[in-house]
């Protein structure tokens, strides 16, 4: 396309002299005719290229829909794995697919910029680049933005090192870790990518809902030298939580911690944000953990773990921090499955039908 354009531009500057009356010159008429043919070829090529790009964007949208289905299935597997189910939660295949789609879309963006440079040099009436490129670029940027925002996920849910296969239950003043990953493994090495974490960025409006501070550093820079095999990971380790004391709760008063929800039914979220930049596209990406329970005493551990089981069994909304305001009952087949996962995670074998029948009789008579 660039060669065609340069040939047309050269002939235009050499042969076409506007303002001169050379209509009777047969050679000039031939030159103008040849020039017109070159312009028609150039116009056709531009239209064909734009049509191919539209087609590629359509295919990319279809592919992205498939990827989001795969990502949703992975998130369900991760949620079940937190409850002890034997699930494969490796992200490498998803990371490969997301990265390749991202690469393709960023290449299209660079191609659009190259086309814009060509348009700046040569344009004409009814130039398809002038008419179609702004909409094409907008569609491409929207697709890239959606892909990148979907690709930022929590790879490891908050858990304490000695959690005994029970993540999502944290104790104040005890260390815990959490990790997020960007599945599109492309980044600008000259741009400092900073990741930050927040506890309850948008807290629910529940009276007495406890607030926590992260004592250790809550921001981290992703280094450009990270090996491509490691991917783009925000790994926060050795974090600790401390409850904010409310100044209004004086001595002898019940204090702000006395809300309508029990401590073990109060659900908290950690949000990761990442300042992302690549090929001129700058975004703030955000992802949240599954809700977790914060306790200050080991006596609450069993009750807190029951809350985590109940929420992950029954909630359709992973950000529903008010779930226990009206907790739904669990159907026995669902609870039986989760109890079997629990036994399997601890004892390497699940519960048989006889075991489950015995438990059901104890629970329901």
UniProtKB/TrEMBL annotation:
List the Pfam families hit by this protein, alphabetically: STAT_alpha, STAT_bind, STAT_linker
SUPFAM superfamilies per the record?
Answer: p53-like transcription factors (SSF49417), STAT (SSF47655)
Alphabetized InterPro entries for the sequence: p53-like_TF_DNA-bd_sf (IPR008967), STAT (IPR001217), STAT_linker (IPR048988), STAT_TF_alpha (IPR013800), STAT_TF_CC (IPR015988), STAT_TF_DNA-bd (IPR013801), STAT_TF_DNA-bd_N (IPR012345)
Q: List the GO biological process terms.
A: signal transduction
Q: Which residues form a coiled coil?
A: 32-59
Molecular function terms, GO-annotated: DNA binding; DNA-binding transcription factor activity
Q: Which residues form the STAT transcription factor all-alpha domain?
A: 1-144
Record-linked Gene3D superfamilies: EF-hand, STAT transcription factor, all-alpha domain, STAT transcription factor, DNA-binding domain
Q: Which residues form the Signal transducer and activator of transcription linker domain?
A: 320-365
Question: What subcellular compartments does it reside in?
Answer: Cytoplasm; Nucleus
Write the protein's name: STAT2 protein
């Amino acid at each position: 396309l660039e060669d065609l354009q340069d040939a047309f531009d050269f002939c235009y500057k050499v042969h076409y002299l506007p303002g001169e009356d050379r209509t009777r010159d047969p050679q000039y008429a031939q030159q103008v005719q040849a020039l017109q043919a070159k312009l028609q070829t150039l116009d056709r090529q531009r239209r064909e290229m734009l049509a191919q790009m539209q087609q590629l964007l359509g295919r990319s949208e279809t592919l992205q829909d498939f990827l989001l289905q795969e990502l949703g299935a992975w998130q369900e597997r991760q949620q079940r794995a937190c409850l002890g189910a034997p699930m494969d939660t490796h992200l490498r295949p998803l990371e490969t697919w997301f990265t390749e789609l991202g690469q393709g879309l960023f290449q299209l963006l660079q191609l659009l910029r190259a086309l814009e440079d060509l348009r700046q040099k040569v344009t004409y009436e009814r130039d398809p680049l002038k008419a179609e490129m702004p909409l094409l670029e907008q569609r491409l940027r929207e697709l890239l933005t959606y892909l990148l925002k979907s690709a930022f996920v929590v790879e490891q849910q908050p858990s304490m090192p000695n959690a005994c296969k029970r993540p999502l239950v944290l104790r104040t003043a005890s260390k815990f870790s959490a990790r997020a990953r960007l599945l599109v493994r492309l980044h600008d090495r000259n741009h400092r990518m900073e990741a930050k974490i927040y506890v309850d960025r948008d807290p629910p409006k529940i009276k007495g809902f406890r607030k926590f501070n992260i004592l250790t550093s809550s921001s981290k820079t992703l280094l450009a030298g990270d090996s491509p095999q490691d991917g783009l990971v925000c790994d926060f380790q050795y974090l600790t939580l401390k409850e904010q004391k409310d100044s209004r709760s004086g001595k002898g008063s019940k204090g702000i911690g006395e809300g309508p929800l029990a401590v073990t039914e109060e659900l908290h979220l950690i949000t990761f944000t990442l300042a992302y930049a690549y090929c001129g596209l700058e975004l703030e990406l955000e992802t949240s953990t599954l809700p977790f329970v914060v306790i200050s005493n080991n006596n609450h551990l069993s009750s807190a773990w029951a809350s985590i089981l109940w929420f992950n069994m029954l909630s359709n909304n992973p950000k529903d921090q008010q779930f226990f305001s009206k907790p739904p009952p669990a159907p026995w087949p669902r609870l039986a499955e989760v109890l079997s996962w629990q036994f399997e995670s601890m004892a390497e074998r699940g519960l048989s039908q006889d075991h489950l029948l015995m438990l059901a009789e104890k629970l329901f008579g």
